[in-house]
Amino acid sequence: MPTAELLRVVGRDEEVEPILLVQNDEAEPAEWLRVLGANEWYQFTFTTVEDTPKFADASTVGISGYRAGERWLWTSGSFFSIYAQLDEAARKAYTPDDGLTLADRHRAAAMAAAAGAVGVDVIVTTAPSALRDDVADNDSVISVTPVQLLPLIGHYLRTTGNHVLESATGGLQGGGTFVRKFNATSVADLYLAGIDASVPHLTAIRLMAMVDGDRELVKSMAAIALRLSRAARAVDTLLGALSNGSSSTMQRSDTAETTAEAFDRILLYLCAAMDRFARVTQTLFDTSLAADKQRGSLTSTVELRSIIDKFEPTDTAELVALGAYARGIGQLRNRIHTPPTLRHWRQRCSKNRFATSRSSRTFSSATKHWLRSRQRSTPCWAVGQMIRGRCQARLRMRICIEKCWGGQTSARSRPQIPM
User: What is the mean pLDDT of residues 88-98?
Assistant: First the structure.
């Protein structure tokens, strides 16, 4: 059955339209239709590439649509199986076991072709190919796991300027329905609400400080939350920039500048939050210290160790694990502003020229066409295309939930979904 979090996402009927997808001869998913409140389900036909009907070099996938137990739609989609083979060969060139069989890749291609034929924006599945950047068909229709759907929906709502935090519907006496919505006052408040939900101890410390009358601590917690929210907003900007399908040199230059600036802001605000947190921690352990006179940062291994040593070892395992992340953020922030030497740039340019000339001489025209298509083969690109394309035109995201498993997939990629 769907999880409670999944039901909360698909329950936003003004932004999300859920449909169900089954494979081959699976029966109507009546229980799922009832729980999701959906009235459409689709069935696609695919077993193996060898058994699939062909149109020239393309494999054809048949799709049937059903409403109220009757078939109302029949259409088809197509995919090129050679792309899956090229993806597998490219992946195995640097890792012996990529966790996917060729059958898994073919099935992902067939499912993307079927979903694309009926206008689906996102596929929710537990298949091992979900959100894999080495699966070319995730570029046409992105596939995610149920857990990955939540941040994807959040990114979609924020980038489209949707301020609704929660929506609920109910019935009225005498007939009719009501809709109750909880809205953020602005996009900035929407990011702050996300930080409050993700880092609840900041709110807890702020509330305790308010009760104790410690205004400086209240301001510090609010400042840390604000910096984290700005870092989160920069992440959305970064994803939006990476999802830009650049073609010309000017577009690629603008994309690179926007990406670099967003990444710089992420590091800036994360470091600022960790600096403020370290200075606040110093004053909490020693109340005689003046808050505005302290210097320190959680990006420092020495500083973090001095804080960790004040706690019991049983309570610091996660802090120790996160210490490497904090130090990496600090080091990257410092390195990114180190001016490169002339020798560094000469080496970099010579490497780029060698790689370009070598690829032009070695690869065939078909392979170079595939390589060009893989330049945009990232989940970010697929998300950007989804947001800028069909979703904005129809104002709702169509989420396809794969309910059943069938066909020729490996045993490890065929999880059992209880009914």
Answer: 79
